[in-house]
């Protein structure tokens, strides 16, 4: 039975959380409604939750003038899945090793990882290394590799979880029973670390899905390797170029009149974030499940 104060706290907390949830959802609803609003109506009346005239022409324009949209989606999906898997394969064992006091060179490696969070080589040296030394320019690895070598924060977060949230007594008992270090890591550490593994996987997946800078810098001749973010960014740049140079382009008024210059930005944003919105509830479910499985059982 709840006391009167506890019931009051429950009611107030639910109201506050409901208000916060509504504030988080309203911008997404407005974004979607703007994407299906007629472009002329959107320019005249602004952004509204209930526009006077609906239109799907912005989406039609994206898919008609950008036949590579399905391919870009496929590349983004492959990039995100492979990036998350490789990121966890690299991050999890390294974080586990750095959490053990008996590992030789642990202090130096901790400093090395932490140092990469504070300083980097800069844009020009990084570009020269990736293009001249590693040779990933105009390849799929240009989208994948930079995200794998800049995950020092993920390593430190997971290492902190191994140190603070997984009791040493459980792993020590397994070693006494004859389990090797790898078996302890595989059968005990990983199942108990599901919350942080899911969290890091979610962060990594969002980073790979939303990344457009690597494709913008390294894919100079291979637009067929564009991810969905790179392709949408290029389409927006093309529309902006036509709008800015309409006076210098013959018959530009006719062409620009058929381009939904405002609503197309909203539709591109929806196309960019929709897969993450669909995938997040599943990741959230795994996160909660990992918390319940990560408890120490008596």
Any overview of this molecule?
It is a single chain. The protein is mostly helical and 298 residues long. The protein has a domain at 66-259: MetI-like (MetI-like fold). The chain has 15 helices and no strands. Helix 9 (168-176) packs antiparallel against helix 10 (181-192). It is flat.
Q: Report the helical percentage.
A: over 70%
Care to count the β-strands?
0
The chain-level mean pLDDT equals 80
Q: In the CATH hierarchy, what is the superfamily of the domain at 66-259?
A: MetI-like
Reading off the top of the CATH hierarchy, the class of the domain at 66-259 is best stated as Mainly Alpha
* Alpha-beta classification: mainly alpha
Shape: flat
Name a few traits of the molecule.
298 residues; mainly alpha; MetI-like fold; 15 helices; 0% strand
What's the short version?
The protein is 75% helix and 0% strand. It contains 15 helices and no strands.
Please render the helix and strand layout as text:
Elements: H1 4-35, H2 39-45, H3 57-65, H4 69-98, H5 106-118, H6 123-134, H7 141-148, H8 152-165, H9 168-176, H10 181-192, H11 194-210, H12 213-218, H13 228-244, H14 252-257, H15 263-293
